[in-house]
Design brief:
Blueprint: H1 3-70, E1 74-76, H2 82-94, E2 102-106, E3 113-118, E4 121-127, H3 128-133, H4 136-151, H5 154-188, H6 195-231
Helix pairs in contact: 1-5, 1-6, 2-4, 4-6, 5-6
Length: 242
């Protein structure tokens, strides 16, 4: 496939991936809104909005630090990993990132790499297993994939979906707790009980997680697609799926 055909095909795939992402996010928002309505009517939707906004403001910085601590990740200096930082600086410049991310070392034999933070304060964590298994070319491809996530603002998208999923679980568990104590009284007093609403309360977290996983997979595909032009021509790099 020549360069022009590849660019056209890549653009088509990118549009499809973004439309897919928008549809999945919209589905998560609608599910959360429905849950808020079942929980407390119009006031439930207001509480959904308030809690989601607060979580979006506070969550990113807290999750950034918590995730790195959870994995016992330690920052690597450019002196400790000169080749990785040389590739990362060039990739970050090509992707027009505001600053070069910091590389973190994760002491585990698992083969994994992930990005956390924001484009202007990002961390790319690489496990010991990955560092000792992949060659320079493969490591550069992994870094290009993570840089593509930053370029595509995937961290913000996934943080939004994670927040929606957590708020969905919170309202679902709260609703089930209230239902457990009030359902016998409602049935005894002859009040109408919406069994569809009860099913939504029970299964909303599972549906939300499935939508979140589908969104994550879509963003991974898009990062794979974006990593090829980002690392094209980079010495020792070859874009490919992780």
């Amino acid at each position: 496939m020549n360069t022009n055909n590849y660019k056209i095909a890549a653009l088509k795939h990118k549009i499809v991936h973004w439309l897919h992402s928008i549809m999945l996010l919209a589905s998560m928002v609608l599910l959360l809104g429905l849950l808020g309505w079942i929980f407390a009517g119009p006031s439930g939707i207001r509480w959904v909005v308030i809690i989601t906004v607060i979580s979006l403001i506070i969550g990113p910085q807290l999750s950034h630090k918590v995730i790195l601590r959870w994995y016992a990740a330690k920052p690597l200096s450019p002196q400790q990993a000169p080749d990785l930082y040389a590739a990362l600086r060039e990739l970050a410049q090509r992707a027009n990132l505001p600053r070069t991310p910091t590389i973190y070392y994760v002491p585990t034999k698992m083969l994994n790499a992930f990005t956390t933070g924001s484009p202007d304060n990002a961390a790319i964590a690489i496990t010991d297993g990955l560092l000792n298994t992949l060659n320079k070319r493969e490591l550069n491809s992994v870094i290009a994939h993570e840089v593509a996530h930053l370029k595509n603002n995937d961290l913000w998208i996934m943080n939004l979906s994670d927040t929606i999923s957590r708020v969905t679980s919170f309202f679902s568990m709260s609703g089930q707790f209230l239902l457990f104590f009030n359902l016998p009284l409602l049935l005894a007093s002859g009040h109408h009980v919406s069994w569809v609403g009860i099913l939504v309360l029970i299964f909303a977290p599972t549906i939300g997680v499935l939508l979140q996983l589908a969104l994550s997979r879509t963003r991974e595909f898009d990062a794979d697609l974006e990593s090829k032009p980002v690392c094209q021509g980079l010495r020792g790099a070859s874009a490919g799926n992780r």
